[in-house]
Specification:
251 residues, alpha/beta, 2 domains, three-stranded antiparallel beta sheet, Arc Repressor Mutant, subunit A
Length: 251
């Protein structure tokens, strides 16, 4: 079988099954694991899959630039945002991550909400200007333009001074095995720092992020209180997540 033919088979199986196990596909195609690993390296270099130990997972579509991500699954993000906004109680202190999912949460907040919001996103802070009863604390640092958030040592240090009731976390991938992932190491470190300062962390994951993976781990699923998602409960990826006992809030 030619390499191009194997690549087509691998991509078809990745779409069908949501994952590839190199050992299994090598046996099926009558070739070596090394050959399949080379094929997966080629596909990953082309941005067509995310390599993980033993195989590959679908690459997240949410790793595009900020403007591009604003147009991805807008209805799903709106439903997720509405469900996530209901987790914010009056008088609470909430950390809002950056990104398009948490920006959608701001649009769903009641106009008369009394709360404190801590964020490292100038976009989120600006969107809260019209909420007269929401006190906003903006964490500064190096601006990571992909997600319009502050990252780096200064931002992580500032986060250590925060104590919050809730953290609404945005990621690019949610998978039962690889956990929560994103595509930048500094951004992943910032997300971990913020999660460590909240009593409860909920991840916001519209359906295109479920079953996908990116390069850098943020947290294992066991470290969060729950997942807010519009993904169908009977999808293979969601069944795998539910089977491990993780809490899911349907949007």
């Amino acid at each position: 079988m030619l390499a191009a033919e194997r690549h087509e088979v691998l991509l078809d199986r990745l779409t069908r099954d949501g994952k590839l196990v190199a050992r299994e596909i090598a046996v099926e195609l009558g070739t070596s694991e090394d050959t399949i690993r080379r094929d997966l390296r080629d596909l990953a270099a082309a941005g067509l899959c995310q390599r993980v130990y033993g195989g590959a997972l679908p690459v997240s579509p949410a790793i595009g630039n900020y403007a591009t991500r604003q147009s991805i699954n807008t209805d799903g993000k709106r439903r997720v945002a509405r469900a996530a906004a209901s987790l914010i109680t009056p008088g609470s202190t909430v950390i809002l991550d950056g990104g398009t999912s948490t920006l959608a949460v701001v649009a769903e907040l009641p106009a008369q909400l009394h709360a404190t919001v801590v964020t490292h996103s100038p976009t989120i802070a600006s969107a809260l200007m019209d909420h007269a009863h929401v006190e906003v604390y903006l964490i500064g640092g190096r601006l990571f333009k992909h997600s319009a958030v502050a990252c780096g040592a200064a931002a992580v240090e500032a986060a250590q001074l925060v104590n919050a009731d809730l953290f609404l976390l945005g990621v690019t991938g949610v998978h039962a095995q690889t956990g929560l992932t994103t595509d930048d190491s500094d951004e992943a470190a910032m997300k971990r720092a913020l999660a460590s300062r909240a009593a409860d962390t909920y991840v916001l994951a519209s359906s295109e992020k479920i079953g996908a993976a990116s390069r850098f781990t943020v947290l294992p699923l066991a470290k969060i209180a729950g997942i807010v998602t519009d993904a169908p409960a009977d999808s293979p990826a969601m069944r795998e997540i539910a089977a491990l006992g993780h809490s899911v809030i349907p949007a």
